[in-house]
UniProtKB/TrEMBL annotation:
Protein name from the UniProt record: CREG1 protein
GO cellular component term, pick one: endomembrane system
Residues making up the signal peptide according to the UniProt record: 1-19
Keyword terms: Glycoprotein, Secreted, Signal
Domain annotation CREG-like beta-barrel: ranges: 21-189
Subcellular location, principal: secreted
Keyword Signal: yes
Compartment(s): Secreted
Family the entry assigns: Belongs to the CREG family.
Length: 192
């Protein structure tokens, strides 16, 4: 049921009041895509035996705020445990990249865009993962649990914690002609 509600929220975001930004508004596109996504591919440098130093990508649920056209902060929040293999990588090297794509929303299927088609926009964030401080924990909790209510019932003995992706670089691919670079300042100064 929660999945159906979430899908309805994404459809409403894309259809009413959340029209996809034009290609010349790359910062707004980045905010729009992140806010429309519930998960992303997080790439770390592996610290695992046999993979040490190699790229390692894994899927993580995320949220920048409750669903809806005005709920996003632009900050990708995550709910993590030290038991997770990518989190173990991050403990050695907190640098990572995060990719989110409109391919996970109804938008690309509706327009028959392959996920690799630039018109099926995707955003690549580079930066690091940091634990949120106590003053930001309630915001992270609201952002994540509003989209991923199942998280509230995950085993307490896994020592879950709230973290955020600290963005240092942003690349937007939303049209033909190559990637667009957006600064974090440009990104945070616009609304999705």
């Amino acid at each position: 049921m929660a999945g159906v509600l979430l899908l309805c929220g994404v459809v409403l975001l894309l259809a009413a009041g959340g029209a996809i930004p034009p290609p010349e508004e790359a910062a707004r596109m980045a905010r729009f895509v992140l806010h429309g996504c519930d998960w992303g591919a997080l790439a770390t440098l592996s610290a695992q035996e046999g993979l040490r130093g190699h790229p390692f990508a894994n899927i993580f649920s995320l949220s920048d705020g409750p669903p809806g056209p005005f709920g996003g902060s632009g900050v990708p929040y995550l709910y993590l445990t030290d038991m997770e293999i990518s989190v173990q990588d991050l403990e050695i090297n907190a640098n990572a990249s995060l990719t989110v794509s409109l391919a996970q929303t109804p938008y690309c299927k509706k327009h028959r865009y392959d996920p690799q088609n630039p018109l099926c926009a995707h955003i690549i964030f580079c930066g690091s993962i940091v634990k949120v401080n106590d003053s930001e924990a309630d915001l992270a909790k609201k952002a994540l649990f509003s989209r991923h209510p199942e998280m509230e019932s995950w085993p307490k003995d896994h020592n879950w914690f709230f973290a955020k992706f600290n963005i240092t670089n942003i690349w937007v691919l939303d049209y033909f002609g190559g990637l667009k670079i957006v600064t974090p300042e440009e990104y945070y100064s616009v609304k999705p």
